Amino acid sequence: MAISVIKQILFILSSLLLLFSSVAIAEKNTASFDTLKILGWVEFVRLEPWGMKLSARVDTGANTSSMSAYNIEMFKKNGKQWVKFSFDFKKDSEERSVEIERPLLRMLKIKQHSGPSQARPVVSMEICLADEVREMEFDLVDRRALNYPILLGRKALAGFALVDSAHAYLTKAVCGHVKKKK
């Protein structure tokens, strides 16, 4: 008899705990949902600190973000591993290139649909997206043959944005940049 009462009390307490934790999680998700930005499937971004304005493909099917890079070289600086690479961009319909050096965060193994896996260096870059500067990780790969030099994956968008795949360029990438008069 006493064991039966204890089991009922434990069942009621467990049910109440489960109910209250579900409500708390729902309130947390609802609160953050209201603050998320809505992005299109393509958005303007700016590479900081240069302020280079580029189109980036937003791809929730990709886990990580990628940045176009070629002439990728690893080197040591102050005892730490760094990466140097070239990045192409357009300014006033003119092709330009900039050389970027960043600390190496890690090597990422990417599984290919066809062919062997690739090992790509991962660096951290500041990006202006939806009028907010954010630190994001990018794996480096030559994307010059693709339409967009930057691909934003799920990790870059998590807790920050939702994607409306029916639209493009829903936000601006201002972040304090002033357009120069010609």
Automatic annotation (TrEMBL):
Domain Retropepsin-like aspartic endopeptidase: 38-171
Signal peptide span: 1-26
Alphabetical keyword list: Signal
Pfam families with a match to the protein in the record: Zn_protease (PF05618)
Gene3D superfamilies, per database record: Acid Proteases
SUPFAM superfamilies associated with the record: Acid proteases
The protein's name in its UniProt record: Retropepsin-like aspartic endopeptidase domain-containing protein
Organism listed in the record: Nitrosomonas stercoris
